[in-house]
Amino acid sequence: MQQISPETLAEKLSQMDLFQSVPEEMLLNLASQSRIEKFYPDEAVFLKNDPGASLYLILKGTARVHDEDYTVAKLSTGQCFGEVALLDDSPRSMSISANEPLLVARIDRDVFFGVLGEHPNVMQRIVIQLASSLRRQTEQTLKHLRQREEELTILVEQRTAELQRQKEEADRQRLRAEQSERAEQQFLANMSHEIRTPMNAVTGLTNILLHKNPREDQLKYLHHIREAADSLLIILNDILDISKIQAGKLELERTDLHVAHIFEQVRSLLSFQTEEKGLVLNIHCDPRIPETLNGDPVRLKQIVLNLTSNAVRFTEKGHVGMKAELLEMHGQSCRIHFEVEDSGIGMSEEQLQFVFENFRQATSSTTRKYGGTGLGLSISNELVRLFGGTLKVASKPGEGSRFWFDIAFEPGATGSVEAPQNAIDPHQSLRGLRILLAEDNLLNQMVAEEMLQLLLPEVTIVTALNGKEAVDLARDQTFDVILMDVTMPEMDGLEATTLIRQLPQPKCQTPVIAFTASVTTKEVQRCLQHGMNGCIPKPFKEEEMINALYAALYPEPSQPVAPSPFIEELAGGNPERIQRYLNLYIDSAQMGITRLQKALPGNDREEIRKVVHTLKPNFRMFGLEDLAQQAETIEKAILDRQDEEGVPLLVEVLLEGLRESVNKMSK
């Protein structure tokens, strides 16, 4: 313990207002009977409601005056506390604790009266000083009570703030999850690119050889190579699909759907396998089913193909059957029963319990003998659920299996089933094209060149090894269409397309088709947002190449959206750039709709304000002045803390306008 001499302590006491009128010998007497005490950080000198007994003088360090965790004031070296305790031993109104190592001199109440009690004049002056100090402390206490009263009035806001902090923490967790998801998506995109690039060469060269009139024994080998390549692609697509399903990112489209056409496509795809195994493939499509339905044909085909290819894989002899039967029609809804059954190896009751789990097959010997990843049934189960149905199964060992599900559809547009685009005669529609092919992989470049020369008569192909070369060639020469690889050195296909869209007319309008191994929905959308006209996935099929070229060169006429004068001027009247701006608005508006829908139930006014503040300039840019005024009204009401009950109603009106604007601009 640090020692302080009575003389030194008396000198320090004399500097206090309280003891300025006390004679020196009395101060020395007080100092000699005082105690020096030390306190450690956060240690309490005394607590609220403890009885008053002593006066304290801070010799070194700092302390805080507080009520529980609420700090009222800070005390430092040379200051004193506890003066009122010399006259009144009632409970203290505040606590005192050390902020750091604290050294104090303590004068007890009995010492104080013992030294000064026999000197009335001195005591009178000290009492006056103490009364003044008491008044100051009372004022401070009242001030503190007023502060506490204010805090109590905003207790609900504090609790709301706590909920907000919890929400922010949940948002941070969500952000971390999204970052993890983005990393996973990036990994999947990279994996897709790395696998699809060599697979493009395998399938491309196989298709080229099939066009060169191979011998019968060579034809058999080539079919096996193509079948193996298709199997690898199915595995890759299954992994990408299950990732999207787990992330909740897989959504169904709503377009024209033809059940009979889907069944015929599945039959065609599996014909080689069924013929090779000597299986009978029975197909029954109820003629009462409307010719055109509204739904997602790609995903329905994926379900039927998964179930039927599984049936073919696990059936050594006998038959496989596909059936679609109309169950009922109710106004604008029809319910259809789909079924796939086989005479294959079947499954036991135990195996049926985990038949829809990821990466699970009956036994390890099943995997070795029949192959597959065990993802097809899991994905089919999830897709059926997205359609609003339930995938069911019945099976017995050695007696085959039966899978079925029921789905309700709305009838689509009437009319006959259109012939697939690959039925278009390339000699009439795509003859003599001049194509710029930007591809850094020489093997893939060779495959694409040979395939185009086989498919298109009188075609001229100019090649570039990177995006920079492609831009230079597009500037200096004229092309009918550009096939642009997305991932290239020096300059990628996205940046190259952006620069091509900035070239003078008419070269800026040359159709650009993404030639990419990354086929996730997000990647395709990114290509379109950068001004590309379509995408051809690697490895590509002949009909996909023809369809993409035809769609880019002969797009279906659509009703143009009338942009605002500002957008017209900003885009220089370029229709492609105008469409890109419209797409950006649609993306921002849809994000705003999602955020507002989440913020509205909990009346998260700050989130609502941020969203409308972000959307407001977009409204004005596109001439949507009514929406801009609504957004401004909502923002002002929130900032001014007005119209607490009216804001949600205003937001509902804004949401309706937002959805309407998105629908109009999407057409």
CATH homologous superfamily caption of the largest domain: Histidine kinase-like ATPase, C-terminal domain
Name of the CATH architecture of the largest domain: 2-Layer Sandwich
* Rg, Å, rounded: 40 Å
Number of E strands:
20
Question: What overall geometry do the principal axes of the alpha carbons give?
Answer: elongated
Please identify the top-level CATH class of the largest domain: Alpha Beta
- Which residues form runs of ≥5 with pLDDT under 50? 362-373, 415-424, 557-561
Provide structural commentary.
- The protein is an alpha+beta fold and 667 residues long.
- The chain has four domains: 6-118, Jelly Rolls (Sandwich); 255-411, Histidine kinase-like ATPase, C-terminal domain (Heat Shock Protein 90, 2-Layer Sandwich), CATH 3.30.565.10; 426-553, Response regulator (Rossmann fold, 3-Layer(aba) Sandwich), CATH 3.40.50; 565-666, HPT domain (Four Helix Bundle (Hemerythrin (Met), subunit A)), CATH 1.20.120.160.
- The protein contains 22 helices and 20 strands.
- Strands 9, 10, 11, 12, 13, 14 and 15 form a seven-stranded mixed sheet that branches. A five-stranded parallel sheet has the order 17-16-18-19-20, sandwiched between helices. Strands 1-8-3-6 form a four-stranded antiparallel sheet.
- Helix 5 packs across helix 13 (442-455).
- The longest helix has 56 residues, at 155-210.
- It is elongated and about 130 Å long.
- The model is unreliable at 362-373, 415-424 and 557-561 (pLDDT under 50).
